[in-house]
Amino acid sequence: RVARSSAAVRKPLRARSTRTAAPKMVSIRQAVVAQRSYHSSGKKNAPSPKDFVPEDISERIQNASITEIYHWTGVGLVGAVPVAILLSPSFLCVPVDLALGVAIPVHSHIGLSHVIEDYVPPEQRSLAKNALLAVTIFML
């Protein structure tokens, strides 16, 4: 290369082999991989999946959040609706229909209450929630 005397063109600085040289630049990916592979502390005991499973199913239901109940009813509806269609003309359909008669109003009430909280103005929220409660009770 030919060195130019212009101030606009500068040569990149090279790190010298002395102790005062700037550290070598590494890519972000290399830094993340190095951080994952190097540990200065001992191995930590991760919690077992058994630690999160309650001993009693009633305890799990009592400690469930509204969002978990919403998700459980959604999963139940995915399985129960096709079963209700397949068992339609028989007496086996009665328990499935009863389960759907509870799961559909509960699922719709929770979902629509979230919609009301997100999209209805605060001054009209109580009226909308009361109307939703009345419709849910009527559906049950």
Automatic annotation (TrEMBL):
Amino-acid positions noted as binding a ubiquinone in the UniProt annotation, renumbered to this chain: 119
Pfam family membership, one: CybS
Residues that hold heme b according to the record: 107
InterPro entries assigned: CybS, SQR/QFR_C/D
GO cellular component, one term: mitochondrial inner membrane
Keyword Transmembrane helix: yes
UniProt keyword list: Iron, Membrane, Metal-binding, Mitochondrion, Mitochondrion inner membrane, Transit peptide, Transmembrane, Transmembrane helix, Transport
Location relative to the cell: Mitochondrion inner membrane
Membrane topology of the entry: Multi-pass membrane protein
Region forming the signal peptide: none
Protein name (Swiss-Prot/TrEMBL): Succinate dehydrogenase [ubiquinone] cytochrome b small subunit
Organism the protein comes from: Coccolithus braarudii
